[in-house]
Amino acid sequence: MTNYNKNLPSVKKILFLSLLPIIVLLIIISCEIFLRKNKEAFPVNIPCRGNMIIEAQYDNERARMVTSLYFSFLGKNKILISLSGTGYLYNNKNVVIEKKTLLRNIYYDSVQESKATETYSLTSSQINIDSVDDFDWRISSLLLMNSFFLTGHTDTLVLKKFGDNALLIGNNQSPFTLCVFNTSL
Fold it and tell me: How many other β-carbons are positioned within 10 Å of the β-carbon of residue 125?
């Protein structure tokens, strides 16, 4: 007599092979749902633009900067901030004594310090300064965060989603720009 059971697959194998595509499909669907929720929670793949006006008062001098800002998550814990604008130094009679041009790209290595407070530590890894940028040490130290002009310095920023199409960027004391992005692109 011939034994036909040797040639037939076991019930466990049949169940495993029939459930395997379903399990893979469920994993793919759950990952997609998680990624979609994650993108809605924080738009890490969309760059944004904003404007900043910074004013500082030191002894008998007042400094002011009007700047456009471009902000982008580059992936792998890298962030790009591009600044372009003008800085002004005023004397005690409120007369402009110096006018400087700002045009630079700052590349950061970022670490998320806290999800609850949306706080990131940004360490400048590379600063590309354009030839027309003439911000010197004096005006830079008055108006810019250290990591905007010193490679290797770390600043802490709060990056908070604001509404459906904006990112509020600030430090622990106060926001300094509202960066707007377009989700329909």
Answer: 15
